[in-house]
Hints:
Jelly Rolls, 2 domains, Arc Repressor Mutant, subunit A
Amino acid sequence: xxxxxxxxxxxxxxxxxxxxxxxxxxxxxxxxxxxxxxxxxxxxxxxxxxxxxxxxxxxxxxxxxxxxxxxxxxxxxxxxxxxxxxxxxxxxxxxxxxxxxxxxxxxxxxxxxxxxxxxxxxxxxxxxxxxxxxxxxxxxxxxxxxxxxxxxxxxxxxxxxxxxxxxxxxxxxxxxxxxxxxxxxxxxxxxxxxxxxxxxxxxxxxxxxxxxxxxxxxxxxxxxxxxxx
Length: 229
């Protein structure tokens, strides 16, 4: 793994919504505290008890997961270029990372900012602090949505509500089938069967990851769910 400072404007900063809208002076300030590290496929990019850092995926693909009390892997999300993690850990008083793991699925290049450096940066950059609060609120909303899916005991309801929540008649699934299954708390085979069942019911057409909802209101009514527009 390589570890070296980054000078000048760095591509990773331009890809992250967290830094969108910052002026030249603020971006210049950020680049002074950014460092870079490279990971091979299978390397752990982040794990519990590590030093708290904000990590930005500049290149590559990774997965975020946790380990349950029974030792099972619980998929959280897939990370792609521009995604970031660790904003929770660098804002809290603890000097260690959150209780999740990030594993490189292919060679990855990571930009990272240490907790102490980032806190000092927020004090100097009020606009960045406000941007962090805005994105943190969005993240909490998504987390609450995930919890709402898992609270549905019927797996068909979970899948149906997830599809309805996309808010579109036609869309592309952004996650691989196995990742989406883990996100919804089921197995890929079960998810495939449910999607086929929905197609047999005339509610949707599916071509790979392309989904076309033919009868959103019918699906919602059948499971007593809300179809958001």
